[in-house]
Amino acid sequence: MSRDQFVRQRQAQAEREVSIAQIDQQQATEIAEQTKAISIAQKSQEQSHAQAKANEAKADAVRAAQAVITTEQVASAERAKQVALVLAAQEAEQRAIGVKVEADAARQAAESRAEAIRTLAKANRDNYEVEAAGKQAINQAVNTLSEAQINLQAKLTLIQALPKCGRWKRSTAYGSCRWMD
Length: 181
Prior knowledge:
Layout: H1 3-143, H2 147-165, E1 168-170, E2 177-179
Antiparallel strand pairs: 1-2
């Protein structure tokens, strides 16, 4: 073989070796990129899984915090309800005391009015008894009067009634009264 041929063969073999090396390098690069992509995908999956667990943990923490807030609010509402019930009971007791005081005052006023009515009735009865006793004494006195005294009273009553009956004029001549036209 000639030197040219040998050089060409060497060159062809070197080119083949370069080509094989380039193919091997390209394959190695692709494998490295694939390995890198797989590694990245695995890391991404692990990160997503870790992120999901973190999110779940955050959600649990939020739920727990909300449960605490709810429990606090329920306890606060229960306390407010108990306070309102106590205040309502106190107010009802105050109203009941007020009603009782008013009822007692009304009862005492009614008793006082009844006592006043009884006192007035007794005073009227005593007054009527005294008046009746006085009339009875007058009637007994009238029954014991003589006939001359009875005639005198009748004349006096007639004299007192005459001015109401018409115009009368007293005559000085005989001390008598006569009708005036």
